[in-house]
UniProtKB/TrEMBL annotation:
One of its GO terms (molecular function) is phosphorelay sensor kinase activity. It comes from Corallococcus exercitus. SMART domains: GAF, HATPase_c, HisKA, PAS. It catalyses: ATP + protein L-histidine = ADP + protein N-phospho-L-histidine. It comes from the Bacteria. Gene3D superfamilies: 1.10.287.130, 3.30.450.40, Histidine kinase-like ATPase, C-terminal domain, PAS domain. The keyword tRNA processing does not apply. PROSITE patterns: HIS_KIN, PAC, PAS. InterPro entries: GAF, GAF-like_dom_sf, HATPase_C_sf, HATPase_dom, His_kinase_dom, HisK_dim/P_dom, HisK_dim/P_sf, PAS. This is histidine kinase. Residues 426-639 form the Histidine kinase domain. The keyword Phosphoprotein applies.
């Protein structure tokens, strides 16, 4: 029996219009094609899908035209990549001669691209973070060395695994000032500086501004490191000036994007160049400032600077040495506190004039010293102006005139002594005449008394004393005139013992006033020596006088002469308090004295030393506190 297959419409089966309504109501983008994949119908969802992805149905039709329909009852997918980069998937299903098409976006591709985009954003954020940190680091760098170290840290973090070289040069000469390399540099690779043409163009660097012979431009980036295969570089350019370059190279096998690295490197180089420029400007300003400070500090002149509040802001070494005050003790103090109280009224109008911009020359005043003394100085003032022309302080440059003023006093004193000397010579002349008469008459009376029988011996003794005293006065006045008379610097053969005795005779009044005694120990065999007698007497008068002043009543001045080899040696020793070690090295300095005011000029020992040295000898001193002082004079003996 043969069976027959026929179509049976079930009870309640929908009409074709109902299927069309169902097709249109589908939310999934769909289309119906024939076996040639020509689109017969599309639903509204597909039209919306195409509009969302900025494509037309015709684009889908073209994509389907190049595809192959699946076998009956089979299905497969067709990938479609749009110009926007979006990837679509068209799922084809065939039933007899009808092919159903469903469209969807490839979520895996989108997810992958999102991951890539996310990674790119994260990398960009990391790069910006490193550049921001680098900006802070270079801004805080205290100098070029610290700046290069900060840049090296940034490059390492931005470009791990690369070899790199940072070179900083002088913008004017092109000379290398700093170099940092991470990797094994080729020999001689750090100079000269070779710039990449494309990078130079991007930084708008003017070729004519480059130092000749120190910088060149090339179409290719030279390889500076061993084992590198590729390289990128970026010049450090700021305000049209070249301050160096950063070279970065890739070892073989490193997966990297040189184009991206170059963009980041140029961005970093631009930031670094400004920092390098600022660092070099700061270094130059610091150098100039330190140079000026050293110039003021160590100048061979007294330099003092005060601000508008009259506070001291500069007090150089010359002033510190003169006053004994350190900078720490002076800086910030009011200027009036450094001058003597009697000088403050005179100082006020000078400062006021300087604050008005007026210069003052040769203003003399007295500065206080650390030990409470005073030094006389002469200053010339000048005003320091701000950019708008306002006075912001006063600088005073001067010199110590204490010695000059002291010399003026000494000259006046010497002139007085010269006048007194002339008067003394006249007085001596007037004394000599009557004393000669006294001596003559006393001698005559003594001779008569001796010839007279029964004369009183007591009267004869008195006449002898009158005669001896008269001769002593005559001898003293004669020696005094000889001593006061200017020496003719004509050496003569003199006896050293006689010279010392003459000095003792001149000092008898000093010895008696000091109530000390003199003990002499002369060697009888000291040969004569060639000397200016008056000058040598002056040396020993000064040494004996100083010894008397250094002792209390009851002290002893010990004088000795002796021959030592080819020298005659005189020692003047006292039993006084001795000289402090800190003063011993200055004892022969002019105007240095340890005596109270009015007791000494500080010139005596200096003059004595000069006289002894002019005779070819030496004057030395030995002293111990509480044990006395010994001055030793060594003079060459006369040669036949």
């Amino acid at each position: 029996m043969k069976s027959e297959v026929r179509a049976v419409r079930p009870s309640g089966t929908l009409a074709p219009d109902a299927f069309q309504a169902f097709f249109d109501a589908l939310d999934e983008p769909a289309a119906v094609c024939d076996v040639s994949l020509r689109i017969a119908a599309v639903n509204p969802a597909l039209r919306r899908f195409c509009a969302e992805h900025d494509i037309s149905v015709d684009v889908l039709a073209e994509a389907l035209a190049s595809a192959v329909a699946p076998e009956d009852g089979q299905s497969h997918e067709v990938d479609l990549v749009l110009q926007s980069g979006t990837s679509l998937v068209l799922a084809l299903s065939r039933r007899a001669d009808t092919v159903a098409v469903r469209a969807r976006v490839d979520t895996e591709v989108i997810s992958g691209r999102l991951v890539v985009a996310e990674r790119a954003l994260l990398e960009q954020a990391r790069t910006e973070g490193v550049l921001l940190d680098l900006g802070r680091s270079v801004a805080e760098a205290g100098g070029e060395e610290e700046l290069v170290a900060a840049v090296a840290r940034g490059v390492k973090e931005l470009f791990p695994g690369r070899a790199f070289c940072i070179r900083i040069v002088d913008a004017r000469s092109g000379g290398l000032t700093s170099l940092y390399a991470e990797g094994r540099l080729k020999e001689g690779a750090h100079e000269p500086l070779v710039l990449f043409q494309r990078s130079v163009e991007k930084t708008n660097l003017t070729v004519t501004a480059l130092p000749q012979g120190r910088v060149s431009i090339s179409e290719e980036v030279p390889l500076l490191f061993h084992g590198s295969t590729r390289a990128v570089s970026a010049p450090l350019v700021a305000s049209g000036q070249l301050f160096g370059a950063i070279n970065m190279e890739y070892p073989e096998g490193l997966d990297a994007d040189p184009a991206h690295d170059e963009r980041v490197l140029l961005q970093l180089a631009s930031q670094v160049a400004v920092a390098v420029k600022n660092a070099k400007l700061i270094d130059e300003l610091t150098f100039v400032r330190k140079y000026l400070e050293e110039l003021l500090e160590k100048a061979n002149a007294l330099i003092l600077v005060v601000n508008r509040d009259k506070q001291v802001v500069v007090f150089n070494q010359a002033l510190s040495a003169l006053t004994g005050l350190t900078k720490e003790q002076v800086l910030g103090r009011d200027l009036s506190s450094l001058v003597a109280a009697s000088e403050q009224l005179r100082l006020a109008p000078v400062l006021a004039a300087a604050m008005r911009g007026e210069s003052v020359n040769n203003f003399e005043t007295r500065l206080l010293t650390r030990d409470g003394g005073e030094v006389r100085v002469s200053f010339a003032t000048s005003s320091m102006l701000t950019q708008p022309g306002e006075v912001e302080g006063v600088i005073a440059i001067g010199q110590d005139v204490t010695v000059v003023k002291e010399l003026e006093k000494r000259i006046i004193h010497a002139e007085k002594l010269a006048s007194i000397g002339q008067l003394a010579a006249s007085v001596v002349h007037e004394i000599n005449n009557p004393m000669t008469a006294v001596a003559t008459y006393a001698d005559a009376l003594l001779q008569r008394s001796r010839m007279t029988p029964g004369a009183n011996p007591a009267d004869q003794e008195k006449l002898k004393k009158i005669l001896e005293s008269s001769h002593r006065i005559l001898r003293f006045t004669r020696d005094l005139v000889s001593y006061a008379r200017p020496a003719q610097d004509r050496p003569e053969r003199v006896s050293l013992n006689a010279v010392v005795d003459m000095a003792v005779g001149f000092c008898e009044h000093v010895v008696s006033q000091a109530r000390v005694s003199v003990q002499r120990e002369y060697a009888s065999d000291v040969p004569p020596l060639a000397a200016v007698r008056a000058n040598l007497v002056q040396v020993f008068v000064n040494l004996i006088t100083n010894a008397c002043h250094a002792m209390q009543p009851g002290g002893l001045v010990y004088l000795s002469t002796v021959q030592e080899g080819t020298e005659a040696v005189v020692r003047v020793r006292d039993t006084g308090t001795g000289i402090e070690p800190r003063n011993l090295s200055r004892i022969f300095e002019p105007f240095f004295t340890t005596k109270p005011e009015g007791r000494g000029t500080g010139l005596g020992l200096s003059i004595c030393q000069g006289i002894v040295e002019n005779h070819g000898g030496r004057l030395t001193v030995e002293s111990a506190l509480g044990q006395g002082t010994t001055f030793t004079v060594r003079l060459p003996l006369a040669t036949d």
